[in-house]
């Protein structure tokens, strides 16, 4: 950064110190910067020259030695391979032959010596004859094996000096490759070292030229520095910088200066502190500093700013910005920052309070959206994480999840109900696991004391450690740092604990956080308690309704039956169904739905189901059953209108119900049914074809005075009829027509399915994610009664035919293998047929059905029903039905469009009624006519 503008300094300007300026010193004075730089450069040049000479000497020596090695090897190998060398070595006087040749070769090649020796190293030649015959100084072992040896070694005196610097030893071989002698050639060090001396003047001349250039360059730089410092001496520059730096960094206002290219040129200490700038900030682009976007945009734009307020982290800054050079075109801006955080502290606290209130409002909206305890607990965890804590767990008393009233005895056993946050980082108990807390854990302490328990450092929390040391160790390794346990209390009753965890890289819990956590837990506890109360009431209603519904399938041979019942989430409805065995191996199917929800609807359903059972026991036609139910619902409505129920009581004002009543006769394969406002049943044929039954719709129960239409369906064996309530077809997401299409699609191709599989397939396809109404579903597959187990006779209206009827019955029982009940059956047949002939009207017909029990049916055209009575001793009649009641398991009368049917059932096998001999003998005396 250039501090001054660069304008010429006026002659009358005085120095900053107030003293008169002395004459400038010489440019190259040693005490000046230029003189010191010059001295440094001279030293460097001198050292470079010395280093160059040393390097040249060393390199020249190395090159000379290398060249000497090559020349020595070439000379030795040339002499060794010369013609006649090997032969001379084998001669009687090798020295006489080889010494002249060796000396000639030495002088011709400028070598220092050429020595020929035998294989023991004894010299044959040498420049000094007195050394001939002595041992060669050097290594000869590798040469004896055919290899060349190059080495540095000393030896006897030579003509050029003492000592050998480089010598080569090569073998001399004969025509057969046998080593017969050795040849060594070498050069002394004295001859090699003289090679570098001619180059020394060049190096010294180059050093002198470099020194001259340094002096000239230093003088030029010194003059330029003097101009750029406007004539100020170094001491004056240092003093000026010290004053500038002291003022710049001591002020309580941040100062930033940026250049025209957007780089930060200066930032004083206050600006660095306010903006959190790094130490190496100078010279970097503004957009690379990681400042908040408003501050970055402010520093990058050229517009002037006056007293603008900006937020940087947790500080409120008052910003002013001006151009650095308003009269020139050099660019750059100057920004001043003033910290006004203290002035905004009051407004900041108000903002924090407003944010807390906003968060509490949001929590109130998001927590308690349903009346499900576990879902409410999960909503609490989701609201608190990660806003208040990194990990949130909610542990509830097991009694709370079941809807019971919590007791202090169950405080130590809590069940994990919800987890919020990243549970993959920290190992925690999974949802649904029952946790038995020890007495020293923060969770049990906060339950027992009813206040917040905070653990700032979990490494020091012994109670938390003791609960599960292994899990605690893993949690701490995952970075868990602190815990705040808050009790969940509603209406003074503890419900559980919510645990707020923070990681090591998160700030510690502040007092404001604790108060917020306590308020959040208090609001969530009320929602959880409401859900608990609803769960209890819902469980009671579901229990009541399930107890009112069938618990098992009755014994019957007509239908293969399966069912499903799914209660609503928000409240139990009045859906019910029933399978009622009827006389004559017939079965009644009932499906109904009471208007409304809750305990009142469940109780009303129980009353209607009991009434249907009673009407079915009377064996009334299907339309009369619905008519009697309609009258009952009307009376129940009247009771509600005149009762003492408080206004607004749940379930009051029930206006009606729907019902479908069907009777199936497996002998004829006919379904007789009627429906009062109930959805139409669906029929699945054995080939999988799905059709609607076509039963006409009648008005719902409770309107009064409207007839109910009856329909008869003749179904082949193996067909399925599906009954259901409207909760299966419609909910908030779809209407009834769409639900019917989905039901038909789910049943399509179900001809081979069992009723159990059919029910499951329908539930899987149509069950809503959130059931707003009860769902009742019943599937029944038809069976046909075997024809070979049915016997029918037309009986003339003549008492004389009674013995023949008994005989026919005896014969058929023998064919069926039922001889053990033949006597009782004959007695029942005799009495029933006699009564029909005597008191009824034609036509009289007898039918025997052999199934789970033996059924005797006698029909006639009269509508008069017989009554069981105890006859007096003087009475001549009145004992027939008494005998039937004694020998039959049960008996009764049902009416048909053409008269009535009197029936009696007898259990088979071990179920037959046991009779003693005395009553039998007594009863035998009552017969007027016996077949002998």
UniProtKB/TrEMBL annotation:
<keyword id="KW-0472">Membrane</keyword>
<dbReference type="InterPro" id="IPR036457">
    <property type="entry name" value="PPM-type-like_dom_sf"/>
</dbReference>
<dbReference type="InterPro" id="IPR003018">
    <property type="entry name" value="GAF"/>
</dbReference>
<keyword id="KW-0902">Two-component regulatory system</keyword>
<feature type="domain" description="GAF">
    <location>
        <begin position="372"/>
        <end position="538"/>
    </location>
</feature>
<keyword id="KW-0378">Hydrolase</keyword>
<dbReference type="InterPro" id="IPR000014">
    <property type="entry name" value="PAS"/>
</dbReference>
<keyword id="KW-0597">Phosphoprotein</keyword>
<dbReference type="InterPro" id="IPR029016">
    <property type="entry name" value="GAF-like_dom_sf"/>
</dbReference>
<keyword id="KW-0418">Kinase</keyword>
<dbReference type="Pfam" id="PF01590">
    <property type="entry name" value="GAF"/>
</dbReference>
<keyword id="KW-0808">Transferase</keyword>
<dbReference type="InterPro" id="IPR035965">
    <property type="entry name" value="PAS-like_dom_sf"/>
</dbReference>
<dbReference type="InterPro" id="IPR029151">
    <property type="entry name" value="Sensor-like_sf"/>
</dbReference>
<dbReference type="InterPro" id="IPR036890">
    <property type="entry name" value="HATPase_C_sf"/>
</dbReference>
<protein>
    <submittedName>
        <fullName>SpoIIE family protein phosphatase</fullName>
    </submittedName>
</protein>
<dbReference type="InterPro" id="IPR013656">
    <property type="entry name" value="PAS_4"/>
</dbReference>
<feature type="transmembrane region" description="Helical">
    <location>
        <begin position="37"/>
        <end position="58"/>
    </location>
</feature>
<feature type="transmembrane region" description="Helical">
    <location>
        <begin position="200"/>
        <end position="222"/>
    </location>
</feature>
<keyword id="KW-1003">Cell membrane</keyword>
<keyword id="KW-0812">Transmembrane</keyword>
<dbReference type="Pfam" id="PF08448">
    <property type="entry name" value="PAS_4"/>
</dbReference>
<keyword id="KW-0067">ATP-binding</keyword>
<keyword id="KW-0547">Nucleotide-binding</keyword>
<dbReference type="InterPro" id="IPR003594">
    <property type="entry name" value="HATPase_dom"/>
</dbReference>
<dbReference type="Pfam" id="PF17203">
    <property type="entry name" value="sCache_3_2"/>
</dbReference>
<dbReference type="InterPro" id="IPR033463">
    <property type="entry name" value="sCache_3"/>
</dbReference>
<keyword id="KW-1133">Transmembrane helix</keyword>
<dbReference type="InterPro" id="IPR001932">
    <property type="entry name" value="PPM-type_phosphatase-like_dom"/>
</dbReference>
<feature type="region of interest" description="Disordered">
    <location>
        <begin position="1"/>
        <end position="20"/>
    </location>
</feature>
<dbReference type="InterPro" id="IPR052016">
    <property type="entry name" value="Bact_Sigma-Reg"/>
</dbReference>
<dbReference type="Pfam" id="PF07228">
    <property type="entry name" value="SpoIIE"/>
</dbReference>
<feature type="domain" description="PPM-type phosphatase">
    <location>
        <begin position="556"/>
        <end position="782"/>
    </location>
</feature>
<feature type="domain" description="PAS">
    <location>
        <begin position="242"/>
        <end position="307"/>
    </location>
</feature>
<dbReference type="Pfam" id="PF13581">
    <property type="entry name" value="HATPase_c_2"/>
</dbReference>
